[in-house]
Amino acid sequence: MRKAFSLIELLVSIFLLGLIVNFLYSAIGNLQKTNILFNQKSQEMQNEQKLIDLLYDDIFLANKLEITGSKNSTINLVTSNSIYDIEQPYVSWLLSREKNTLLRVESTKPFTKMTTDNINFYHITQVKEDCERFKIYQSKDKTNILIHITFKDKKPLVYEFFKPMKIKISKDANETNRTTPAPANQ
Question: Are 164 and 56 in contact (CB under 8 A)?
């Protein structure tokens, strides 16, 4: 009767265990790489959504809106949306030539040429670098706004915003028409 493993059986089992460990080690390594890529992509998407949400809030809550520029847009508005706790701030979105940075400028006073005397009235936020295109289109009836933003080596962001119409109330109480704001669409 045999009571022990032979040397060949032991070597074969060690070899098979080594193959299994090697496979598991490479699978865990690939899983870690995939997890890192997923987290980076998720973070990029969150940052893009924050950018779009901020721009949407600025436009949606704007009392006055002016879009200028041919190749890239500059949008100037007076809004009730403020990230610096300013009541009815003057906000401007523009593309800076330096590092192609998308900027959001918020001010307590209307925009003029920035000098050392009035620099304290401006709050400049660098929204995102490597922006190749920032273009905003507005429909003729000024209710629809299309935003096209392209960052270097990324797919362009294209969103259409719908500004809600004001509440119309007729003399007959049953004929009240209300329009609610539409969410941002991609």
Answer: no
